Automatic annotation (TrEMBL):
The encoding gene: ung
Gene3D superfamilies: Uracil-DNA glycosylase-like domain
Catalytic activity annotation: Hydrolyzes single-stranded DNA or mismatched double-stranded DNA and polynucleotides, releasing free uracil
Primary residence: cytoplasm
Localisation: Cytoplasm
Protein's name according to its UniProt entry: Uracil-DNA glycosylase
Organism: Winogradskyella damuponensis
Family: Belongs to the uracil-DNA glycosylase (UDG) superfamily. UNG family.
């Protein structure tokens, strides 16, 4: 695994790359990609960072694991490649987007246009074995992505953090709430959404309202 990550992030994360845990993680990932089918493809592992430079980050959406079926994962949390059927959580994200902002349900589930506007779509674990959810958890990725969240919190101001579900909410302790905006809700997965913990959170309009209040350009959430 080559750490092909945008230079704007290297400035802040180089100390992490030198730590023993990260070197162990790189060795583990290289071996996994040689001996197993893993996702996303190696060149897409750091896509979240490469489509959203450090100085451009305005919003952070935290996911847990990449999708683990063929052709789905593209290195951005909740996002799938063009032409791939939308997973259930993404369907509910788009339904809420439709309810909140009146944006028509999109054809593509590729969230790259969000990333390109400053939305960091960060999974806590950046890789996974095919058809084995959670298979690369507790190998070092979480330590790295926690450091990413802490770095954003320390070095930036007025970032909107969207914490969806119990796992993401645990990251709240890494964020300085006196200088950032934290919006929380249930997870968009059917289990949570169908119990009333997701729909109606209006996180998309609330995010834009918060950005506008601090003089930032709001996010165009349309994907078409």
């Amino acid at each position: 695994m080559n750490v092909n990550i945008d230079q704007s992030w290297k400035t802040y994360l180089n100390p992490e790359f030198e730590k023993p845990y990260f070197k162990d993680l790189v060795a583990f990932i290289k071996h996994e990609y040689k001996t197993q089918i893993c996702f996303p493809k190696a060149s897409d592992i750091f896509n979240a960072f490469n489509h959203c430079a450090f100085n451009e980050v305005k919003v952070v959406i935290i996911g847990q694991d990449p999708y683990h079926d063929i052709g789905q994962a593209n290195g951005l949390s909740f996002s799938v490649n063009d032409g791939i059927k939308h997973p259930p959580s993404l369907v509910n994200i788009f339904k809420e987007l439709e309810q909140d902002l009146g944006i028509p349900y999109p054809i593509s589930g590729n969230l790259m246009p969000w990333a390109d506007q400053g939305v960091l779509l960060l999974n806590a674990t950046l890789t996974v074995r095919a058809h084995e959810a959670g298979s690369h958890q507790k190998k070092g990725w979480e330590q790295f992505t926690d450091a990413v969240i802490q770095t954003i919190s320390a070095e930036k101001t007025n970032v909107v953090f969207l914490l969806w579900g119990g796992f993401a909410k645990k990251k709240k302790k890494l964020i300085d709430s006196s200088k950032h905006i934290i919006l929380e809700s249930g997870h968009p997965s059917p289990l949570s959404a169908n119990r009333g913990y997701w729909f109606g959170n209006k996180h998309f309009s609330k995010t834009n309202s918060q950005l506008e209040q601090v003089g930032e350009i709001s996010i165009d959430w349309k994907l078409e």
